[in-house]
Specification:
The chain is of the alpha+beta class. The protein has 3 domains: about 5-75, no CATH class; about 80-175; about 185-340, Reverse transcriptase/Diguanylate cyclase domain (Alpha-Beta Plaits), CATH 3.30.70. The protein contains 11 helices and 7 strands. The longest helix is centred in the middle third of the chain and has 50 residues, at about 125-175. It is about 65% helix and about 10% strand. The radius of gyration is 30 Å and the shape is elongated. Strand 4 and strand 5 form a beta hairpin.
C-alpha cells in the first residue's frame, strides 16, 4: 500500500490509531499500527470488513487476530526488516510511556502539595509555615511545567520517529512487490494492485485498460546468447517500460518470464492501445550492445495485446482476454499490437 496522506492528515490519523490500539490487547507493534492505520484511513475496504466482523466475536483483538488480519489483507515484509522496525517502534512507544508516567507522577506530587497548601491556609496562622508550603507548591509547579514541556518535546520526537518507521515499513512492503531484475512490480504486486483496482466500483461509462507485452523470440535469445544476455534484455525491457509508461497512476509489472503487464486505470481501449503502440515502437528501436563497444548484439521486438475491462469481469478473465490478443499478435507475425474484443 502506498500512503499519500499529508503530514497534517497523518498526524490526525496517528492520534486516532493510538487510541484504537489502546482499546485492544495486541501489542504496540508496526503490524498493529499498520492494521489500525489502514482501518482508520479507510484505505483497505476488505480489511475494514474483516476487522469489523472479527470485533463482533472478539471485542478486544489480540496479537494472533491482528497478525492474521495483516497477513490476509496487507502485504508482508521480510522477518528481518519487521524485527528491526518492531524493536524501534517498541522503543518509541516505551519512551512515550515513560514520559507520560513521569508527568503523571509530577502531577500527583503537585496535587498533593496543593492539598497540603490548602490545609495549611485553613489551619495555620504561622507565616513561615505558610511560606514553606507556598515555596514547595511553586517548586512542584515548576517541575510540573518542565515535565509537561518535556512530554510535548518527547511527543514530537516520537511522532517524527513513527513517521520514519512508517516510511521504512512502506518501503519494505513495496520491495516485496518489486521484481529485483526488472525493477517493476512482480506478479504478487500486480495481483495486489489489480485486487485494489477492481474492488472500486466502476462508473457506467468508465473503463480500465490492460496491456500484455511479450518479448519476441526470447527463447532464441537465451539459446543463442546465453542467460546473462537474456537477463540484460529483461532488465532493459523493465527500464524501457518505466520510461515509456510515465503516468503515475499506471502500473507496470513483470507477469512472468518475458511477459509484462501494463495497467491503466480509468483509460479507454483507444488510450490503452496507444500506450501499447508506444511500447512496441520504442522496443523496436532498442539496441543491445556489447559492454564498452559500439557493436550491436541484437535487436528486440515485442508483441502486445490490449483489453478494456468489461463490467463485472474478474482479473483472471481480463488478463486472459488481453493474453489472447497478445497471441494473435504472435500468430500474425509478431512486432504488433492486437485489440481484445
Amino acid at each position: 500500500m502506498h500512503y499519500t496522506e499529508t503530514k497534517e492528515k497523518s498526524a490526525e490519523l496517528l492520534r486516532t490509531v493510538v487510541g484504537l490500539m489502546g482499546q485492544h490487547d495486541a501489542a504496540f507493534t508496526p503490524v498493529t499500527y499498520s492494521v489500525w492505520y489502514e482501518y482508520a484511513a479507510g484505505l483497505n475496504a476488505r480489511l475494514n470488513q474483516a476487522l469489523d466482523r472479527l470485533k463482533l466475536t472478539e471485542p478486544r483483538l489480540g496479537d494472533a487476530s491482528i497478525q492474521r488480519l495483516y497477513r490476509e489483507h496487507i502485504a508482508g515484509v521480510d522477518d528481518k526488516t519487521m524485527d528491526r522496525i518492531s524493536r524501534d517502534f517498541q522503543e518509541v512507544m516505551s519512551n512515550v510511556v515513560d514520559s507520560v508516567q513521569r508527568t503523571g507522577d509530577r502531577a500527583g506530587a503537585f496535587g498533593a502539595e496543593l492539598h497540603d497548601l490548602n490545609t495549611a491556609l485553613q489551619q495555620t496562622s504561622d507565616p513561615s509555615a505558610l511560606y514553606r508550603h507556598l515555596e514547595l507548591a511553586l517548586q512542584r509547579s515548576r517541575e510540573m511545567q518542565d515535565s509537561a514541556t518535556a512530554l510535548q518535546a518527547q511527543a514530537e520526537v516520537s511522532r517524527q520517529e513513527i513517521q520514519r518507521l512508517r516510511t521504512d515499513l512502506d518501503r519494505a512492503r513495496e520491495e516485496v512487490f518489486v521484481d529485483s531484475l526488472t525493477r517493476v512490480l512482480n506478479r504478487k504486486g500486480l495481483d495486489h494492485r489489480l485486487e485494489q483496482l477492481l474492488h472500486r466500483p466502476l462508473a457506467a461509462n468508465a473503463s480500465h485498460g490492460l496491456v500484455m507485452v511479450d518479448i519476441d523470440h526470447f527463447k532464441h535469445i537465451n539459446d543463442e546468447h546465453g542467460h546473462l544476455v537474456g537477463d540484460q534484455v529483461l532488465a532493459g525491457m523493465g527500464e524501457l517500460l518505466r520510461k515509456v509508461v510515465t503516468d503515475p497512476s499506471h502500473l507496470v509489472a513483470r507477469y512472468g518470464g518475458e511477459e509484462f503487464a501494463i495497467v491503466l486505470p480509468d483509460a479507454s481501449l483507444e488510450t490503452t492501445a496507444a500506450v501499447a503502440e508506444r511500447v512496441r515502437a520504442t522496443a523496436k528501436a532498442m539496441r543491445l550492445r556489447k559492454r564498452n563497444t559500439p557493436d550491436v548484439v541484437l535487436n528486440v521486438t515485442v508483441s502486445a495485446g490490449a483489453a478494456a475491462l468489461h463490467h463485472g469481469e474478474s482479473a483472471n478473465d481480463w488478463i486472459a482476454r488481453a493474453d489472447a490478443a497478445l497471441y494473435r499478435s504472435k500468430a500474425s507475425g509478431r512486432d504488433r499490437v492486437s485489440l481484445a474484443a
